[in-house]
Automatic annotation (TrEMBL):
Signal peptide: none annotated. Part of the ABC transporter DppABCDF involved in the uptake of various di/tripeptides. Is also involved in the uptake of phaseolotoxin, a toxic tripeptide inhibiting the enzyme ornithine carbamoyltransferase. Responsible for energy coupling to the transport system. It is a peripheral membrane protein. Keywords: ATP-binding, Cell membrane, Membrane, Nucleotide-binding, Transport. One of its GO terms (biological process) is peptide transport. This is ABC-type dipeptide transporter. GO terms for molecular function: ATP binding; ATP hydrolysis activity. It is an enzyme of class 7 (translocase). The complex is composed of two ATP-binding proteins (DppD and DppF), two transmembrane proteins (DppB and DppC) and a solute-binding protein (DppA1-A5). Five orthologous SBPs (DppA1-A5) are present in P.aeruginosa, which increases the substrate specificity of the DppBCDF transporter. Belongs to the ABC transporter superfamily. It catalyses: a dipeptide(out) + ATP + H2O = a dipeptide(in) + ADP + phosphate + H(+).
Length: 332
């Protein structure tokens, strides 16, 4: 049994004029110690999927259907009191902006100790010792000094290390990292991702990494999901998808990477933009931007087809698989 399993998850936002669907039929799993990447443009539904796992979606958003199973128990059906035992304790989350996560009027030590005492019945002295140990694990220099400092006294990279240390405080089984390096410069980004990867490997913690950076996903994750307009359109082993992407959208994302173009040439760009929740097209939501779109794509949502080790929701891929199968049958 998978450590975390999401089944047919639907998330909607109740607004005037009718509900808007942010996630439709999302299904995936995460095993203990596994590293999973969620990839897609802004508005694809990556963060909504992450927040849904811990039922952190603010109203008017709500989980409309499906299950979120953690060790077989449905998180979506749990009470707020039951969820408190899971959040931060067994499933931890790293948010995009550390300044929005850390309380500016409390010292780092106070915030870390409070987080521990909320879940463990130990003394403040013992909690402070755990906090100090976690700061040492994330390689923060002079950790004793940092415990008594305020967030504004630390650099952006240092604050993000503190956030990772807080995520590790209670030895979680799963860490959900939502764009953990967005606010940092490139060199610090690499350091933070290396640190996160090493910690997950050492502690055998499962990592769910949400990002739009395919370069990071290819280096850090073992499996990846590509999302578009609230739906998973391709999923499978990261290396298989990076080396041989099947869905036209995934192909476009990879083609847009700077290293894929000729030096000095214009970067490739997928035409158009992600549709808003109010204007999701009928059929395959990617069809207005797709070179292979047919009337079938405009009218119906494609089912998943198994292409090698990868699951893809695309009529073009399905058609190609049928042709290949037919040719093999003719040869035999």
């Amino acid at each position: 049994m998978a450590l975390l399993e999401v089944k047919n998850l639907d998330v909607r936002f109740a607004v005037r004029g009718g509900d808007l669907t942010a996630l439709r039929g999302i299904s995936f799993s995460l095993d203990k110690g596994e590293r999973l990447g969620l990839v897609g443009e802004s508005g694809a539904g990556k963060s909504v999927a992450a927040f849904s796992i811990l039922n952190l979606i603010a109203k008017p958003g709500y989980i409309a259907g499906g299950q979120i199973l953690f060790e077989g128990k449905d998180l979506a059906a749990m009470s707020e009191r039951e969820l408190r035992k899971i959040r931060g304790n067994r499933i931890a989350m790293i948010f995009q902006d550390p300044m929005m996560t850390l309380n500016p009027v409390l010292t780092i030590g106070t915030q870390m100790v409070e987080a521990i005492l909320a879940h463990r019945k130990i003394s403040k002295k013992e909690a402070r010792a755990i906090a100090l140990d976690r700061l040492q694990k994330v390689q923060i220099p002079s950790p004793e000094k940092r415990l008594d400092q305020y967030p504004h006294e630390l650099s952006g990279g240092m604050r993000q290390r503190v956030i990772i240390a807080i995520a590790l405080l209670l030895d979680p089984e799963v860490i959900i990292a939502d764009e953990p390096t967005t606010a940092l410069d490139v060199t610090i980004q690499a350091e933070i991702m290396d640190l996160l990867l090493n910690l997950c490997e050492q502690e055998n913690v499962a990592l769910m990494l949400i990002t739009h950076d395919l370069g990071v996903v290819s280096q850090v994750t073992q499996r990846m999901l590509v999302m578009y307009s609230g739906r998973i359109i391709e999923q499978g082993p990261t290396r298989d998808i990076i080396d041989n992407a099947q869905h036209p959208y995934t192909v476009g994302l990879i083609s847009a990477l700077p290293q894929m173009g000729e030096p000095g040439a214009r970067l490739f760009q997928i035409p158009g933009s992600m549709p808003s929740l109010k204007n999701v097209p009928t059929g395959c939501p990617f069809h207005p931007r797709c070179d292979y779109a047919t009337d079938q794509c405009r009218q119906a949502m494609p089912d998943y087809v198994h292409a090698g080790n990868v699951d893809v929701a695309c009529f073009e891929v399905s058609k190609r698989m049928e042709q290949e199968k037919h040719m093999q049958e003719e040869r035999s």
